[in-house]
C-alpha cells in the first residue's frame, strides 16, 4: 500500500519545504488541489524541490481547460519531474464550470471520456510523430505543426487518474484512465458495492482488468494522542461528513445505507445557513461508516481491514490539525503492513 501526503491549503506559493518533508518522512506522493491557486505551477515547484516523491493533482479541473492545454502542461510536468507526475482530473460541478469559468457543460461522463482520449492522442502524436487526428463530439484536434511539437517525452505519458462518485463517471475512469481517485465521502460498503464494480465494468469494455490500475483512497480519520485531541478530531470529522452529506450530488452514498432522509435534512439546513448545527445530525453509526475513529495505534490495522484489498494507495483525510510525526507513524505502519494488494486491485 502506498501512502501519500496532501499539500495543505495555503502552502501553494512555497510547496518545496512541505514536499521535501513528505519525501524525508517516506510518503510516496504529494497531492495538491485546485482551489485558490493553479495546481500545475504548485506541482512544478514541488517537483523541482524533490527527487523521489511523485507529484499529483487531486484534482485539476478538466472542463475549465481544453485537452490540448492540459496535455501541454502535463507533458511539461512529466518531463520536469523525471516521470513523477500523477495527473488527477475532475469535472467540477456545472455552476462553477459555466458561471465561474464561462466554459461549456454537457454530458459530463461522455465529455470526460472524450477529453482523456483526446489527450492520449495528442501525447501519442508527440511521442510517435504520427499526424494528430482526433475528432469527437465535444473536442477536435487536427493540427500539430513542428514548431509546436515538443517531441517524444523520455518518460512517456503521465498516469491519468480520474475522480468521481457516481457509477457512470467511475466506469469511465475504468475505461480510459490509469486510476481512480475516490472521494473522501465514501464508505467501505459504497467502495465495494458501487465503485469497484463500476471500475471493473469500465475495464471490461476495453478487455482489461484492474491489474496495474490505481485506486487512490481518501479515508477520513479521527484520531489523537490525547482525549482532548481525539474529541476535537471527532468534532471536525462529523462536520466534514455533514458538509458533504448536504450536497445532492453525493446523495447516492447515503441512499445506499438507507440514510437518504439525512441527506435531505442536511441539504435543507445548508440552505437555511444552519452550518454549525449540521454536525449534530451525524450520529455514531454514520460517523463510523465514513471514518476510522480510533486511537493512533489502532488506525493502521483498521484502515487495512477496510481497504487493504481494495485500494492501492491512500491519503489520510484529517480535516483538523494532526501532529506530523503521528501521521507519519501511522503512514509507515500502513505502508509496511502486508496487504492482499501488491499490484493492482483485487478482482475478488
Structure description:
- This protein has 348 residues and is an alpha/beta fold.
- Helix content is 47%, strand content 14%.
- Strands 1-2-3-5-8-9-10-13 form an 8-stranded parallel beta barrel, surrounded by 6 helices.
- It is globular and about 65 Å long.
- The mean pLDDT is 96.
Catalogue the unreliable spans. Answer: none
Can you count the beta strands? 13
| Helix and strand pattern | EHEHEEHEHHEEEHEHEEHHHHHEHEH
Shape: globular
Short description:
The protein is of the alpha/beta class.
Topology (elements, then pairings):
Layout: E1 2-6, H1 16-25, E2 29-32, H2 39-49, E3 54-57, E4 60-61, H3 67-80, E5 85-90, H4 94-100, H5 108-128, E6 134-135, E7 140-141, E8 159-164, H6 167-176, E9 179-182, H7 188-205, E10 214-217, E11 220-222, H8 227-245, H9 251-256, H10 260-271, H11 275-278, H12 284-290, E12 291-293, H13 296-307, E13 313-315, H14 324-336
Parallel strand pairs: 1-2, 1-13, 2-3, 3-5, 4-5, 5-8, 8-9, 9-10, 10-13, 11-12
Antiparallel strand pairs: 6-7
Helix pairs in contact: 1-2, 2-3, 3-5, 5-6, 6-7, 13-14
Tags for this model:
single chain, 348 residues, alpha/beta, 8-stranded parallel β-barrel, two-stranded antiparallel sheet, 14 helices, 13 strands, 47% helix, 14% strand
Amino acid at each position: 500500500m502506498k501512502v501519500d501526503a496532501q499539500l495543505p491549503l495555503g502552502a501553494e506559493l512555497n510547496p518545496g519545504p512541505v514536499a521535501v518533508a513528505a519525501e524525508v518522512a517516506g510518503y510516496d506522493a504529494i497531492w495538491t488541489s485546485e482551489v485558490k491557486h493553479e495546481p500545475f505551477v504548485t506541482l512544478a515547484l514541488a517537483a523541482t524541490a524533490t527527487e523521489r516523491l511523485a507529484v499529483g493533482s487531486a484534482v485539476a479541473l478538466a472542463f475549465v481547460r481544453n485537452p490540448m492545454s492540459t496535455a501541454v502542461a502535463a507533458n511539461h510536468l512529466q518531463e520536469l519531474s523525471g516521470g513523477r507526475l500523477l495527473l488527477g482530473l475532475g469535472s467540477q460541478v456545472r455552476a462553477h464550470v459555466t458561471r465561474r469559468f464561462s466554459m461549456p457543460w454537457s454530458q459530463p461522463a461522455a465529455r470526460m471520456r472524450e477529453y482523456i482520449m483526446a489527450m492520449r492522442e495528442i501525447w501519442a502524436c508527440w511521442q510517435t510523430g504520427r499526424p494528430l487526428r482526433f475528432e469527437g463530439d465535444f473536442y477536435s484536434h487536427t493540427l500539430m505543426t513542428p514548431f509546436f511539437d515538443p517531441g517524444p517525452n523520455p518518460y512517456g505519458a503521465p498516469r491519468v487518474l480520474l475522480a468521481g462518485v457516481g457509477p457512470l463517471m467511475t466506469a469511465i475512469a475504468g475505461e480510459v484512465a490509469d486510476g481512480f481517485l475516490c472521494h473522501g465521502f465514501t464508505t467501505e460498503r459504497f467502495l465495494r458495492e458501487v465503485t469497484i464494480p463500476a471500475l471493473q465494468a469500465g475495464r471490461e469494455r476495453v478487455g482489461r482488468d484492474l491489474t496495474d490500475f490505481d485506486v487512490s483512497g481518501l479515508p477520513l480519520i479521527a484520531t489523537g494522542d490525547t482525549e482532548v485531541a481525539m474529541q476535537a478530531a471527532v468534532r471536525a470529522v462529523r462536520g466534514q461528513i455533514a458538509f458533504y452529506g448536504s450536497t445532492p450530488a453525493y446523495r447516492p452514498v447515503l441512499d445506499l445505507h438507507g440514510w437518504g432522509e439525512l441527506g435531505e435534512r442536511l441539504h435543507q439546513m445548508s440552505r437555511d445557513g444552519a452550518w454549525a448545527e449540521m454536525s449534530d445530525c451525524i450520529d455514531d453509526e454514520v460517523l463510523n461508516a465514513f471514518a476510522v475513529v480510533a486511537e493512533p495505534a489502532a488506525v493502521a490495522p483498521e484502515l487495512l481491514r477496510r481497504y487493504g484489498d481494495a485500494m492501492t494507495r491512500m491519503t489520510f483525510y484529517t480535516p483538523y490539525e494532526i501532529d506530523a510525526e503521528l501521521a507519519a507513524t501511522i503512514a509507515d505502519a500502513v505502508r509496511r503492513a502486508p496487504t492482499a494488494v501488491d499490484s493492482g486491485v483485487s478482482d475478488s
